[in-house]
Specification:
This protein is mainly alpha-helical. The protein has helices at 2-36, 39-52, 57-69, 73-84, 91-103, 107-120, 125-137, 143-153, 158-169, 176-187, 192-208, 225-235, 247-264, 272-282, 286-298, 300-309, 311-323. Helix 10 runs antiparallel to helix 11, helix 11 packs across helix 15 (286-298) and helix 13 (247-264) packs across helix 14. It is globular and about 70 Å long. The protein starts with a helix and ends in a 14-residue tail after the last helix.
């Protein structure tokens, strides 16, 4: 009798495991359809998986997002609303719900969803990023508060740097658009957004050196020692911008800046981005790195000429860049917002 009971238990366990495996396999199949743009098959397969795993949050997220991609916003909301009102909702649930409300321009309800999500997940950089985008959609410039908060609590979420860099570029700021933009292109190195930010960086350096004395117009009421250190180190290179900004000039300016920074301020302000500059200098890849940033942004033809004339330097850096993971530690946040 004990042997029979044991066999029955094993049989039930095997059936349950098979069911779980089938549901997971179906979910992956549904995602494959979704990525191909075959919304109908994706929904059908997700629903089969949901029969095996009723009320599964991950599957409900997938179904809601597929309806969103299909632009069936009514069914998308019908699916995701019970999820975000439940205790089981995850970060992705709030992202999907917020995205749907932004798409149909129900921004008040979207703001409520993001606020609720951030109360449950206060360390989610993605939720701060998307909440900021919703506020920006409303022309509410408090969006920058959300992006800055996202940077401070989740320093490796690229979207907050992208949005903050663009925001500061259109203000009188001459510092954070450059810093956040460069961090962004190291976190997200090969996208359309990367190309956009490279152009902002190029124009941002022209904006920075528009006045020969970088400290002249600095608002001392901000009392931000990191900003003063940044401007002081850059100011020591101001003479190199006298004849204009081009890739060679920027390489010289930034090389002088980082050497000054490392000698004067690195101990006081540990900062991963500038530590990365030091690493590249020591590996003799700093010129190639700066060409990668500014060469294509300033003159794509000249950049291709540089690559042709410097194949070893280009290939060494390119292999390194694509093979490394750029990560920022917490605790290196120097904004005073």
């Amino acid at each position: 009798m004990k042997k029979l009971t044991f066999l029955l238990a094993c049989s039930c366990f095997a059936i349950a495991a098979s069911s779980q495996q089938n549901a997971d396999t179906l979910q992956q199949t549904g995602r494959d359809y979704m990525h191909k743009g075959d919304w109908g098959n994706a929904i059908m397969v997700f629903n089969r998986a949901l029969q095996q795993k009723p009320n599964d949050i991950s599957l409900l997220n997938d179904i809601a997002y597929t309806y969103f991609l299909q632009r069936d916003f009514v069914k998308a909301l019908e699916t995701i609303k019970p999820v975000v009102e439940s205790d089981e909702a995850d970060v992705q649930s709030f992202q999907i719900a917020g995205t749907i409300y932004r798409a149909i321009e129900e921004l008040k309800e979207g703001a409520r969803i993001y606020t609720k999500g951030l109360k449950k997940f206060p360390m989610s950089g993605m939720l701060y990023d998307e909440y900021g985008e919703l506020l920006w959609q409303k022309k509410d410039y408090d969006a920058i508060i959300q992006w800055e908060k996202g940077i401070s609590v989740d320093p490796n979420c690229a979207g907050n740097y992208y949005n903050a860099s663009r925001y500061y570029y259109f203000t009188t700021d001459k510092i954070w658009s450059l810093i956040y933009g460069e961090i962004f292109i190291n976190l997200e190195s090969y996208t359309v957004r990367t190309a956009e930010i490279k152009n902002i960086l190029y124009d941002g350096y022209k904006k920075l050196f528009a006045d020969p004395d970088l400290l002249k117009s600095y608002d001392t009421k901000r009392k931000n020692e990191f900003e003063k250190a940044f401007l002081t180190s850059m100011n020591s290179q101001s003479r190199l911008a006298a004849t204009g900004i081009d890739p060679a000039g920027l390489i010289a300016i930034r090389t002088g800046f980082i050497k000054n920074w490392l000698e004067t301020y690195a101990a006081q302000f540990p900062f991963r981005l500038f530590g990365y500059h030091k690493q590249l200098l020591e590996a003799n890849m700093y010129e190639a790195y700066n060409q990668w940033i500014f060469g294509s942004a300033i003159n794509a033809e000249q950049y291709q000429t540089w690559i042709k004339n410097n194949p070893e330097a280009y290939n060494t850096f390119n292999d390194f860049q694509r093979g490394r993971v750029f990560k920022l530690p917490k605790g290196q946040y120097y904004q005073n917002k």
